[in-house]
Amino acid sequence: MKSGKAVGPDDIPLEVWKCLGEAAVEFLASLFNRVLESERMPEEWRRSVLVPIFKNKGDVQSCSNYRGIKLMIHTMKLWERVVEARLRKVVEICEQQYGFIPRKSTTDAIFALRILMEEKYRDGQRELHCVFVDLEKVYDRVPREELWYCMRKSGVAEKYVRVVQDMYERSRTVVKCAVGQTEEFNMKVGLHQGSALSPFLFAIVMDQLSEEVRQESPWTMMFADDIVICSESREQVEENLERWRFALERRGMKVSRSKTEYMCVNEREGSGTVRLQSEEVKKVLEFKYLGSTVQSNGECGKEVKKQVQAGWNGWRKVSGVLCDRKISARIKGKVYRTVVRAAMLYGLETVSLRKRQESELEVAELKMLRFSLGVTRLDRIRNEYIRGTAHVGRLGDKVREARLRWFGHVQRREMYRI
């Protein structure tokens, strides 16, 4: 676990155990062995603090626009890590799931979707129908009995099922906000938001849930609860959407009718719309998938503009450092590469950039570097000197470097994986 995380109700940070070194390892090993043997964790570990975090979209006064994050006791989160490591040894998650799986990331899912849209269908002049399924408060809706059932079906030993059940039994929390906190109450449904184990437990649930629809809907990608259903025909994608809706809602989850969206790649006239039961699914020309904008025409112009804007947003956040004349150009370059360039490069290894779009990114970067170094065009200083002073290479070279790194990652994978 990383240092610097918010503490739970006991106010004991992870750094305490790290400072104790080998003595802490021996003590925790003994403690965790006793917990595993008794299948009972300390009562103090059941307590948590729930903090509502605004999603930065929608009405700030609407509770639905907040995500509840639990601040849990760090020692309990270490115990969760131990249990998770044991579960991963016995549970195999399907290839269609990209979330919370080793050696997989958002880049894999974005690449798979883009390669399908751009190369297979846009270049082949064929239609591809995609439905982006949104689930309502899915972490909070997972029924506990359904979780135990999915764990057993995935081959988890009964002892570890009981250990996880104990983590959720009699769990108590308080809601903390700016004006104070509520009285303590029990949590009887859903997974713990902020838990170290919850992401993998959710992957197990989604894996078992999707098992009954995977054969009929092979072109489906999942990243946790972000589901994309693809098909060559509108009728087929509508049928697969209904299969997913039935499977999800039968297990206590709910598909959001208002946020689920449909997009047709290389659309011909009269291709129609998709319906979910009696409601028409919103049809869009672009969709923001895992932070990357995909367009129905297979182009990437809006994605490049979004990345430029992301770079400027990052630059404004650290402009107090970048524009400070007392800070050396070398330090400014390090801050720039860490904050600004990282934001601009996100997902670009999956994008087929044209020369004009690459130039658009580099022009924006040079403007930021000139502002940071206090240099204007009137000073008639060459771009190469600006980059050399800040120790920042050409952005186009970095994109190609990221693309080659990604190519190596793809080459090392098994042939049956995307």
Automatic annotation (TrEMBL):
Family matches, as Gene3D superfamilies: 3.30.70.270
E.C. designation(s): 3.1.26.4
Which GO molecular function annotation, any one, does this entry have? RNA-DNA hybrid ribonuclease activity
What InterPro entries does the record tag this protein with? DNA/RNA_pol_sf, Rev_trsase/Diguanyl_cyclase, RT_dom
CDD domains, from UniProt? RT_nLTR_like
The UniProt entry, under SUPFAM superfamilies, shows:
DNA/RNA polymerases
Q: Where is the Reverse transcriptase domain?
A: 34-294
Entries under PANTHER family matching the protein: ENDONUCLEASE-REVERSE TRANSCRIPTASE, REVERSE TRANSCRIPTASE DOMAIN-CONTAINING PROTEIN
What the record says about family reads: Belongs to the beta type-B retroviral polymerase family. HERV class-II K(HML-2) pol subfamily.
Q: What is this protein called?
A: ribonuclease H
